[in-house]
Design brief:
The structure is a homodimer. In chain A, about 55% of the residues lie in helices and about 5% in strands. With about 130 residues, the first copy, chain A, is mainly alpha-helical. In chain A, helix 1 (about 5-20) packs across helix 6. The structure holds a DNA duplex (30 and 30 nucleotides).
Chain lengths: ~130, ~130
DNA sequence: CTATTATAGACCCATAAAGTCTTTGAAAGG
DNA sequence: CCTTTCAAAGACTTTATGGGTCTATAATAG
């Protein structure tokens, strides 16, 4: 079990947008250079973030991606869910009634992790970065 | 990102052993029937648990698998680590120095989940099951 | 010695992640 | 209106891994 690389890229891209230019749009090639990956691949990831309402896109000259107005409230969990989906990490497939004790333990542990990820906003890290400069 | 089915099988098998016969060994075909999967596949999973020192195996007639002496202290996390490995769920591959803030957040969230999984022992659930009978 | 059981490893298949390429569509600016 | 610049969409390829089978080997009880 591993987080996908796409999640890593998404988190870094969001942090970069938040720390640099929440206002001005930034092109995908520029964003891709930071992480040394292909622009077309990153654009697929960004499109997911757009669909989830975290990022705005603008076509045409001087276009690009920028954060949406509500960006200060975006948490790690929001971004992870946008890429990985919102399904539970654990599914008990065994056919033994609806109340699987194991399932309950696994889900409650997962919720502990999600709670933490929900509490950390991308804006928190962006502040740390800009303060360090 | 999902837990593997093997983890699900391992947890259920451990629980079944703990709730049924911590003393007498149980054959893999019997264990496999419970979860409706092939004995050879389950044996691969059980071998991992043996190597991690949670389960004892005995070849030959009247052989099979049984829990080890220390079984009351075995946690969910122990079993999960035996199957999934102990690596972190998140690796920041981006080349930007050793102190990735994102990595730190992800790891600390993961530790919250692990803490919970470390606190729940398979013996706890086994007690619940036997008490319910 | 034989029946029974675990162990090991080669092997296969399906699915999903990871990434490329090409076409289409939208906007800005002359 | 035409061209340039950008994102969006989707087909496609590649690679890795989970999930599983099969067969041969080793250990042990009786």
């Amino acid at each position: 079990m591993k987080y996908s690389k796409a999640t890593n890229y998404a988190l870094h891209t969001m942090l970069h947008l938040a720390a640099a230019t929440p206002d001005k749009p930034m092109g995908v090639q520029q964003l891709a250079q930071q992480q040394k990956l292909s622009p077309t691949y990153l654009s697929k990831i960004l499109t997911k973030l757009v669909k989830e309402g975290m990022v705005q896109s603008a076509s045409g000259a001087n276009g690009g991606y920028s954060l949406k107005a509500n960006w200060e409230s975006i948490s790690f969990l929001d971004i992870i869910h946008a890429i990985e989906g919102k399904a539970s990490l654990f599914d008990c497939d065994v056919d033994h009634g609806p109340n699987c004790l194991i399932q309950q333990v696994m889900v409650s542990a997962e919720e502990k992790m999600e709670e933490e990820l929900r509490n950390v906003k991308i804006a928190d890290l962006a502040k740390e970065i800009t303060a360090a400069k």
